[in-house]
Specification:
The chain is of the alpha+beta class and 280 residues long. It folds into 2 domains: 76 residues, Alpha-Beta Plaits; 192 residues, Alpha-lytic protease prodomain-like (Up-down Bundle). It is 66% helix and 9% strand. Strands 2-3-1-4 form a 4-stranded antiparallel β-sheet, with helices on both faces. A hairpin with a 4-residue loop joins strand 2 and strand 3. Helix 4 packs antiparallel against helix 7 and helix 6 runs antiparallel to helix 9. The radius of gyration is 21 Å and the shape is elongated.
């Protein structure tokens, strides 16, 4: 410990792959703290997927060993601007697969949005916004490949604001529908929820061949899992609407999706602002 304290403090950054929520970032920070690192010496940003350390250099091997036990993939960033693309993103086939994901998500999102109006379902509309949001965020991620940390943080800030706007719009319209209490068409709700599951599967299929070599595939699977949970919630809500003839199951699911939007938005905005401040 004395050797570590006497060693020169060094600022080091790592690119972390596989995080999809603030709990993931907190888990990595806890593991780093277990390597006798002060709480204020480590910052894991969900916005840019960058871990920043200000620690004695002799502690780096222990920290890297501790982080490797979490299952997240990480690589040390050399230099300050770090406009270094990740290996998987250099693969043209991988880029094409991500473009397919963008097209499927945005395309079905608009179709489901129209279906939500026909069904009179807030949950279907919220799920449609989830599709559109995922597609546009993936699109921004494609554009940001190889950008510096500052520009990646700015891109993440845009994503966070966009998610926040989506969440507030879903929340406002859901509250309005709670006042008017119009019961949605349960059959159409279930139908669009089912097709949403199908399109989630179709969006993942182009990426299957990269599931072992791509450092970001864990995140892709987590996003797909979360989307599938939302789709299943829409289908279950449709069943309760049909069973009880009430709009509340639809509204509850819509509020839940709005809450997810707002939670993700606040986490991303907070981390992006922190990263921009650190590099100011």
């Amino acid at each position: 410990m004395a050797t570590a304290l006497s060693s020169k403090i060094k600022r080091v950054r790592y690119r972390i792959s596989g995080m999809d929520c603030s709990k993931d970032a907190a888990q990595i920070e806890r593991v780093v703290h277990s390597a006798e690192v002060a709480p204020d010496a480590v910052k894991v940003s969900l916005a840019t997927h960058i871990m920043t350390l200000k620690v004695p250099e002799v502690l780096l091997p222990d920290i890297e060993k501790a982080v490797s036990t979490t299952g997240y993939l990480f690589e040390r960033i050399e230099g300050e601007d770090e406009a270094q693309p990740e290996a998987a993103h250099q693969n043209p086939a991988y880029r094409r697969a991500l473009w397919i994901v963008v097209i499927l998500n945005v395309g079905y999102g608009f179709v489901e949005m129209i279906g939500g109006f026909f069904a009179g379902s807030q949950a279907v509309k919220a799920d449609a916004l989830d599709f559109i949001g995922d597609g546009l965020i993936t699109f921004l991620g494609l554009l940001a490949i190889g950008w510096s940390i500052v520009w990646r943080a700015r891109s993440a800030l845009v994503q966070g604001i966009f998610l926040g706007i989506l969440g507030l719009s879903v929340l406002a319209t859901t509250i309005w529908r709670a006042v008017t209490q119009t019961t949605p068409d349960a059959g159409l709700m279930g139908l669009f929820g089912f097709f949403a599951l199908v399109f989630n599967v179709l969006a993942v299929l182009p990426l299957l061949r990269f599931r072992k070599g791509d450092a970001n595939m864990r995140a892709v699977w987590l996003f797909s899992r979360n989307d599938a949970i939302g789709n299943a919630a829409v289908i279950i809500a449709a069943g309760f609407v049909a069973l009880f003839g009430s709009a509340w199951p639809d509204l509850i699911v819509a509020l839940g999706i709005a809450g997810l939007f707002l939670h993700s938005s606040s986490s991303i905005i907070r981390d992006a602002q922190s990263d921009l401040k650190a590099d100011a």
